[in-house]
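Here is an idea for our session: we take a single protein and study its fold together. Start from the sequence, derive the backbone structure tokens from it, and show both lines together. Once you have written the record down, we can walk along the chain together:
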Amino acid sequence: MDKLKISILGSGNLGTSIANGLYESGIFKPENITLTRRKLQKLEHMRDKGFILTDDNIEAVKAADVIIVAVEPQHINKVLVEIKSGMREEHLLISVATGVKIAQISEQIGNSCTIIRAMPNTAVAVKESMTCICYNKADEKSVEIAENIFNTVGKTLVIEEELMSSSTALAACGTAFFLRAIRAASQGGIEIGFPSKEAIKMAAQTAKGAATLLLTSENHPEFEVDRVTTPLGCTIAGLNRMEHEGFSSALIKGITTSAEKARNLYKKNEK
């Protein structure tokens, strides 16, 4: 991995977050990573870490084994047409453009290089992203490379491409859902006596602890819930009241509604 040459095309917030994750992992060397951006001055702070900077996408593609296309969906076709002449069959192209299918990318590129789609969420900035990965035709080595790249900024999960719109709702929109739950918990904290900053800190850390319990133990959530609840206790009283008020059903409905919206948006992008 330390000899792998990577080019990140469109190094805005997402692209630089991925680059920093690669850098801080110690697995990938910054001198093997090229970052591109039209306004190159905005990347000058990355040069000090040893990254190669250029505003020439073709140059970056020719120098790379792995190409990460991190531009916005409305710009991806233009970039793919631009780099087409520099693409080789042995290239691994990873797209993080939301809603752009592998078939659409392949049609623009026009060769048989390996293409993988990846969808990180905004927690990529703090290396806690849940990144979903899908592919149509890829060997184990290519998938492993993609997983290793995105494991530097969180956790990865390989899914079927048809589930990418659903993963948008659960793992991308889901960030906002859990933030809203934390906000609600902090508001409850204020009502029972805590100052706002303290309530938010307590709610956020408690949420982080709960999530870490699940990720570390791999237990079902209800297993951990049962460990907290006691007969006639305050936890079960609060949980039951939340359920009476529709907490779980509201969250489920929010996720399914977002998934339906995402599917419709994805369909528009295909036209």
In short: The beta strands are 6-9, 33-36, 52-54, 66-69, 92-95, 114-119, 129-135, 154-158. The chain has two domains: 6-159, 167-270.
